[in-house]
Amino acid sequence: MGVISDQLLELDSQGRSLIKKEFGVQVTAEIRIGTSTDLIPPIRKSFTERAPHLVSKIESLIPDLDGIYLKDTHEIWIVQGRGEKFQTIVHEMLHSIQKCFPNRENIVDFLVYKLTGLNDSILPEVLTEWIEIEKSIGLKNVKKLLLSEGDCEEF
Amino acid sequence: MAIHHPQKTRNEDYLDKTLGTPSAQKILRFLVCWEKLPYRDLIVKSGLSESNVYLTLKKLQQSGVVKSDVRGIYQLSEDEFTQSFKTAYSVLLKRIISQNLYEISRQIDVVSPEKITDQLLYLKDAYKPFIEKFYSKKYSSLIGGLINSI
Q1: Residue of chain B with shortest Cα separation from A53
Q2: What confidence tens digit (pLDDT) does each residue in A6-56 have?
Q3: Is the ipTM of this complex over 0.90?
Q4: Residue B120, class by beta-carbon neighbours within 10 Å (0-12 exposed, 13-18 middle, 19+ buried)?
Q5: How far is CA B27 from CA A27, A75, A133, in A?
Q6: Interface of B with A in 46-105 (CB under 8 A)
Protein backbone atom coordinates (compact mmCIF):
# COMPACT_ATOMS: atom_id res chain seq x y z
CA MET A 1 0.00 0.00 0.00
CA GLY A 2 1.31 3.46 -0.88
CA VAL A 3 1.74 6.63 1.11
CA ILE A 4 -0.96 9.22 0.60
CA SER A 5 0.63 12.27 -0.96
CA ASP A 6 -0.18 15.83 0.05
CA GLN A 7 -1.85 16.26 -3.31
CA LEU A 8 -4.15 13.32 -2.70
CA LEU A 9 -4.88 14.52 0.85
CA GLU A 10 -5.88 17.86 -0.63
CA LEU A 11 -8.12 16.25 -3.25
CA ASP A 12 -9.64 14.04 -0.55
CA SER A 13 -10.36 17.07 1.63
CA GLN A 14 -11.87 18.99 -1.27
CA GLY A 15 -14.03 16.02 -2.23
CA ARG A 16 -15.38 15.59 1.29
CA SER A 17 -16.13 19.32 1.60
CA LEU A 18 -17.88 19.37 -1.75
CA ILE A 19 -20.09 16.40 -0.93
CA LYS A 20 -20.92 17.74 2.52
CA LYS A 21 -21.92 21.05 0.93
CA GLU A 22 -23.95 19.52 -1.93
CA PHE A 23 -25.58 16.61 -0.10
CA GLY A 24 -25.40 17.51 3.59
CA VAL A 25 -23.74 14.14 4.18
CA GLN A 26 -20.28 13.45 5.58
CA VAL A 27 -18.17 10.98 3.62
CA THR A 28 -16.87 8.49 6.19
CA ALA A 29 -15.11 6.01 3.90
CA GLU A 30 -11.36 5.89 4.40
CA ILE A 31 -9.16 6.60 1.41
CA ARG A 32 -6.31 4.26 0.58
CA ILE A 33 -3.75 4.40 -2.19
CA GLY A 34 -1.85 1.64 -3.91
CA THR A 35 -0.75 0.12 -7.18
CA SER A 36 -3.05 -2.13 -9.20
CA THR A 37 -1.27 -5.09 -7.57
CA ASP A 38 -2.02 -3.71 -4.08
CA LEU A 39 -5.71 -3.65 -5.00
CA ILE A 40 -5.89 -7.37 -5.73
CA PRO A 41 -6.12 -8.72 -2.13
CA PRO A 42 -8.88 -6.39 -0.87
CA ILE A 43 -10.86 -6.77 -4.10
CA ARG A 44 -10.45 -10.53 -4.14
CA LYS A 45 -11.57 -10.69 -0.52
CA SER A 46 -14.69 -8.67 -1.31
CA PHE A 47 -16.22 -11.25 -3.66
CA THR A 48 -14.26 -14.57 -3.65
CA GLU A 49 -16.65 -16.35 -1.32
CA ARG A 50 -19.66 -15.37 -3.40
CA ALA A 51 -18.14 -15.92 -6.85
CA PRO A 52 -14.88 -17.93 -6.77
CA HIS A 53 -15.29 -18.84 -10.43
CA LEU A 54 -14.90 -15.16 -11.39
CA VAL A 55 -11.64 -14.51 -9.54
CA SER A 56 -9.21 -14.88 -12.42
CA LYS A 57 -11.39 -13.01 -14.92
CA ILE A 58 -11.94 -10.08 -12.59
CA GLU A 59 -8.27 -9.98 -11.61
CA SER A 60 -7.48 -9.47 -15.29
CA LEU A 61 -9.67 -6.35 -15.19
CA ILE A 62 -8.02 -4.81 -12.11
CA PRO A 63 -5.18 -3.15 -14.07
CA ASP A 64 -7.86 -1.03 -15.76
CA LEU A 65 -9.16 0.41 -12.50
CA ASP A 66 -8.50 4.04 -11.55
CA GLY A 67 -10.16 3.65 -8.20
CA ILE A 68 -12.90 1.73 -6.45
CA TYR A 69 -15.18 2.05 -3.47
CA LEU A 70 -15.41 -1.31 -1.69
CA LYS A 71 -18.71 -1.49 0.15
CA ASP A 72 -17.64 -4.52 2.21
CA THR A 73 -14.87 -2.60 3.93
CA HIS A 74 -16.20 0.94 3.36
CA GLU A 75 -12.89 1.95 1.81
CA ILE A 76 -12.01 3.98 -1.25
CA TRP A 77 -8.95 2.65 -3.05
CA ILE A 78 -7.19 4.99 -5.44
CA VAL A 79 -4.67 3.62 -7.92
CA GLN A 80 -1.36 5.44 -7.61
CA GLY A 81 -0.82 7.76 -10.55
CA ARG A 82 -3.85 7.06 -12.70
CA GLY A 83 -6.54 7.46 -10.06
CA GLU A 84 -5.27 10.59 -8.33
CA LYS A 85 -7.80 12.84 -9.99
CA PHE A 86 -10.58 14.88 -8.49
CA GLN A 87 -13.25 13.25 -10.70
CA THR A 88 -12.22 9.76 -9.62
CA ILE A 89 -12.23 10.67 -5.95
CA VAL A 90 -15.61 12.40 -6.14
CA HIS A 91 -17.01 9.45 -8.13
CA GLU A 92 -15.98 6.92 -5.49
CA MET A 93 -17.08 9.19 -2.64
CA LEU A 94 -20.54 9.42 -4.21
CA HIS A 95 -20.70 5.61 -4.36
CA SER A 96 -19.75 5.54 -0.67
CA ILE A 97 -22.81 7.62 0.30
CA GLN A 98 -25.14 6.14 -2.33
CA LYS A 99 -28.20 4.30 -1.07
CA CYS A 100 -30.19 3.80 -4.28
CA PHE A 101 -30.06 0.49 -6.14
CA PRO A 102 -30.17 -0.74 -8.93
CA ASN A 103 -28.84 1.47 -11.76
CA ARG A 104 -26.08 2.90 -9.61
CA GLU A 105 -23.60 3.96 -12.23
CA ASN A 106 -25.13 6.57 -14.52
CA ILE A 107 -26.61 8.73 -11.77
CA VAL A 108 -23.15 8.94 -10.19
CA ASP A 109 -21.53 9.82 -13.54
CA PHE A 110 -24.05 12.62 -13.99
CA LEU A 111 -23.56 13.99 -10.49
CA VAL A 112 -19.76 13.94 -10.93
CA TYR A 113 -20.28 15.97 -14.09
CA LYS A 114 -22.56 18.44 -12.31
CA LEU A 115 -20.28 18.80 -9.28
CA THR A 116 -16.96 19.06 -11.11
CA GLY A 117 -17.96 20.44 -14.51
CA LEU A 118 -15.80 17.77 -16.14
CA ASN A 119 -17.43 15.70 -18.86
CA ASP A 120 -14.67 13.40 -20.09
CA SER A 121 -15.87 10.41 -18.07
CA ILE A 122 -19.57 10.59 -18.88
CA LEU A 123 -20.88 8.87 -21.98
CA PRO A 124 -22.80 11.11 -24.40
CA GLU A 125 -25.81 8.82 -24.10
CA VAL A 126 -25.82 9.16 -20.30
CA LEU A 127 -25.35 12.93 -20.41
CA THR A 128 -28.23 13.39 -22.85
CA GLU A 129 -30.49 11.15 -20.82
CA TRP A 130 -29.74 12.75 -17.47
CA ILE A 131 -29.92 16.33 -18.71
CA GLU A 132 -33.53 15.53 -19.58
CA ILE A 133 -34.08 13.90 -16.19
CA GLU A 134 -32.66 16.96 -14.45
CA LYS A 135 -34.95 19.22 -16.51
CA SER A 136 -37.88 17.06 -15.48
CA ILE A 137 -37.25 16.63 -11.74
CA GLY A 138 -34.55 19.16 -10.87
CA LEU A 139 -31.01 18.64 -9.60
CA LYS A 140 -32.13 18.70 -5.96
CA ASN A 141 -34.28 15.62 -6.58
CA VAL A 142 -31.50 13.85 -8.51
CA LYS A 143 -29.33 14.28 -5.42
CA LYS A 144 -32.20 12.97 -3.25
CA LEU A 145 -32.49 9.93 -5.51
CA LEU A 146 -28.86 9.04 -4.85
CA LEU A 147 -29.47 9.10 -1.11
CA SER A 148 -32.79 7.24 -1.15
CA GLU A 149 -33.50 3.51 -0.97
CA GLY A 150 -34.91 2.19 -4.22
CA ASP A 151 -34.10 2.33 -7.93
CA CYS A 152 -31.73 5.16 -8.82
CA GLU A 153 -33.85 5.78 -11.91
CA GLU A 154 -37.30 5.55 -10.35
CA PHE A 155 -38.66 9.08 -10.46
CA MET B 1 -31.12 2.88 -79.77
CA ALA B 2 -27.95 1.56 -78.13
CA ILE B 3 -28.06 1.51 -74.36
CA HIS B 4 -24.80 2.54 -72.84
CA HIS B 5 -23.72 0.54 -69.80
CA PRO B 6 -20.76 2.21 -68.15
CA GLN B 7 -18.08 -0.33 -67.42
CA LYS B 8 -16.57 -0.26 -63.94
CA THR B 9 -12.83 -0.04 -63.86
CA ARG B 10 -10.89 -2.83 -62.24
CA ASN B 11 -10.17 -0.62 -59.24
CA GLU B 12 -13.80 0.31 -58.68
CA ASP B 13 -14.79 -3.32 -58.93
CA TYR B 14 -12.28 -4.31 -56.25
CA LEU B 15 -13.50 -1.56 -53.93
CA ASP B 16 -17.14 -2.48 -54.44
CA LYS B 17 -16.56 -6.17 -53.80
CA THR B 18 -13.96 -5.92 -51.06
CA LEU B 19 -14.70 -2.95 -48.77
CA GLY B 20 -18.39 -3.74 -48.46
CA THR B 21 -18.21 -7.39 -47.38
CA PRO B 22 -18.86 -8.26 -43.71
CA SER B 23 -15.44 -9.91 -43.50
CA ALA B 24 -13.68 -6.82 -44.80
CA GLN B 25 -15.66 -4.59 -42.45
CA LYS B 26 -14.58 -6.72 -39.49
CA ILE B 27 -10.92 -6.71 -40.45
CA LEU B 28 -10.90 -2.99 -41.22
CA ARG B 29 -12.62 -2.26 -37.91
CA PHE B 30 -9.77 -3.92 -36.01
CA LEU B 31 -7.07 -2.29 -38.10
CA VAL B 32 -8.63 1.13 -37.45
CA CYS B 33 -8.60 0.43 -33.72
CA TRP B 34 -5.24 -1.32 -33.37
CA GLU B 35 -3.23 0.44 -36.14
CA LYS B 36 -1.26 -2.75 -36.86
CA LEU B 37 -2.14 -6.37 -36.23
CA PRO B 38 -0.47 -9.69 -36.89
CA TYR B 39 -2.28 -12.17 -39.07
CA ARG B 40 -3.04 -14.53 -36.15
CA ASP B 41 -4.57 -11.71 -34.08
CA LEU B 42 -6.85 -10.77 -36.96
CA ILE B 43 -8.15 -14.34 -37.07
CA VAL B 44 -8.73 -14.47 -33.31
CA LYS B 45 -10.29 -11.03 -32.96
CA SER B 46 -12.52 -11.23 -36.03
CA GLY B 47 -13.71 -14.76 -35.31
CA LEU B 48 -13.46 -15.45 -39.04
CA SER B 49 -11.94 -18.60 -40.48
CA GLU B 50 -8.30 -18.50 -41.48
CA SER B 51 -9.16 -18.94 -45.15
CA ASN B 52 -11.66 -16.08 -45.00
CA VAL B 53 -9.12 -13.76 -43.37
CA TYR B 54 -6.47 -14.79 -45.88
CA LEU B 55 -8.69 -14.11 -48.90
CA THR B 56 -10.11 -10.88 -47.51
CA LEU B 57 -6.67 -9.51 -46.69
CA LYS B 58 -5.49 -10.44 -50.18
CA LYS B 59 -8.36 -8.49 -51.75
CA LEU B 60 -7.84 -5.54 -49.41
CA GLN B 61 -4.17 -5.45 -50.33
CA GLN B 62 -4.97 -5.66 -54.02
CA SER B 63 -7.37 -2.73 -53.66
CA GLY B 64 -4.63 -0.73 -51.92
CA VAL B 65 -6.53 -0.24 -48.65
CA VAL B 66 -4.35 -2.55 -46.55
CA LYS B 67 -0.62 -3.02 -46.66
CA SER B 68 1.94 -5.26 -45.03
CA ASP B 69 5.37 -3.65 -44.73
CA VAL B 70 6.52 -6.30 -42.28
CA ARG B 71 5.68 -9.87 -43.16
CA GLY B 72 2.58 -11.05 -41.37
CA ILE B 73 1.70 -7.62 -39.90
CA TYR B 74 -1.14 -5.69 -41.49
CA GLN B 75 -2.12 -2.05 -41.36
CA LEU B 76 -4.14 0.50 -43.29
CA SER B 77 -2.49 2.27 -46.21
CA GLU B 78 -1.58 5.92 -46.08
CA ASP B 79 -3.40 7.05 -49.20
CA GLU B 80 -6.00 9.79 -49.00
CA PHE B 81 -9.03 7.54 -49.40
CA THR B 82 -7.97 5.05 -46.75
CA GLN B 83 -7.07 7.76 -44.25
CA SER B 84 -10.44 9.48 -44.78
CA PHE B 85 -12.11 6.11 -44.34
CA LYS B 86 -10.11 5.61 -41.13
CA THR B 87 -11.27 8.98 -39.76
CA ALA B 88 -14.90 8.22 -40.52
CA TYR B 89 -14.65 4.71 -39.18
CA SER B 90 -13.01 5.91 -35.97
CA VAL B 91 -16.06 8.05 -35.26
CA LEU B 92 -18.33 5.08 -35.93
CA LEU B 93 -16.23 2.77 -33.78
CA LYS B 94 -16.31 5.22 -30.87
CA ARG B 95 -20.09 5.26 -31.11
CA ILE B 96 -20.22 1.46 -31.14
CA ILE B 97 -18.01 1.24 -28.05
CA SER B 98 -19.90 4.02 -26.27
CA GLN B 99 -23.19 2.26 -26.97
CA ASN B 100 -21.77 -1.02 -25.64
CA LEU B 101 -20.56 0.67 -22.46
CA TYR B 102 -23.93 2.35 -22.04
CA GLU B 103 -25.73 -0.99 -22.35
CA ILE B 104 -23.42 -2.50 -19.74
CA SER B 105 -24.05 0.44 -17.38
CA ARG B 106 -27.80 -0.20 -17.68
CA GLN B 107 -27.41 -3.93 -17.01
CA ILE B 108 -24.80 -3.94 -14.31
CA ASP B 109 -27.07 -4.36 -11.30
CA VAL B 110 -29.70 -6.50 -13.00
CA VAL B 111 -27.88 -9.04 -15.17
CA SER B 112 -25.57 -11.79 -13.86
CA PRO B 113 -22.02 -10.70 -12.95
CA GLU B 114 -20.76 -13.51 -15.20
CA LYS B 115 -22.37 -11.90 -18.23
CA ILE B 116 -21.13 -8.41 -17.34
CA THR B 117 -17.60 -9.74 -16.79
CA ASP B 118 -17.60 -11.42 -20.18
CA GLN B 119 -18.93 -8.28 -21.88
CA LEU B 120 -16.22 -6.13 -20.33
CA LEU B 121 -13.53 -8.64 -21.25
CA TYR B 122 -14.82 -8.87 -24.81
CA LEU B 123 -14.69 -5.09 -25.23
CA LYS B 124 -11.16 -4.93 -23.84
CA ASP B 125 -9.95 -7.74 -26.07
CA ALA B 126 -11.57 -6.27 -29.19
CA TYR B 127 -11.06 -2.53 -28.68
CA LYS B 128 -8.44 -1.96 -25.98
CA PRO B 129 -6.61 0.96 -27.71
CA PHE B 130 -9.83 2.95 -28.13
CA ILE B 131 -11.04 2.14 -24.63
CA GLU B 132 -7.74 3.32 -23.16
CA LYS B 133 -7.71 6.46 -25.27
CA PHE B 134 -11.35 7.55 -25.03
CA TYR B 135 -13.23 5.56 -22.38
CA SER B 136 -10.76 4.54 -19.66
CA LYS B 137 -12.62 6.33 -16.84
CA LYS B 138 -15.98 4.86 -17.81
CA TYR B 139 -14.50 1.41 -18.23
CA SER B 140 -12.87 1.70 -14.79
CA SER B 141 -16.14 2.74 -13.15
CA LEU B 142 -17.98 -0.19 -14.73
CA ILE B 143 -15.39 -2.61 -13.33
CA GLY B 144 -16.00 -1.07 -9.90
CA GLY B 145 -19.74 -1.40 -10.39
CA LEU B 146 -19.34 -5.04 -11.40
CA ILE B 147 -17.23 -5.92 -8.35
CA ASN B 148 -19.71 -4.27 -5.99
CA SER B 149 -22.62 -6.05 -7.67
CA ILE B 150 -21.27 -9.51 -6.83
Answers
A1: B114
A2: 999 999 999 999 999 999 999 999 999 999 999 999 999 998 989 999 999
A3: yes
A4: buried
A5: 48, 43, 39
A6: 98-99, 101-102, 105
Which of B49, B51, B55 has the alpha carbon at shortest distance from B18? B55
**Taking a C-beta distance cutoff of 8 angstroms, is the pair A20, A26 a contact?**
yes
Which residues of chain A make contact with B119, given a CB cutoff of 8 A? none
Task: Name the minimum distance, in Å, from the CA of A47 to any CA of chain B.
Answer: 6
How much is the pTM? Answer: 0.91
Taking the CA of residue B69 and the nearest CA in chain A, the distance in Å comes to: 32
Instruction: Report whether B59 contacts B24 (CB < 8 A).
Output: yes
If you count DSSP H runs as helices and E runs as strands, how many of each does chain A have, helices first? 7, 3
Measured between its terminal Cα atoms, the distance across chain B in Å is 75
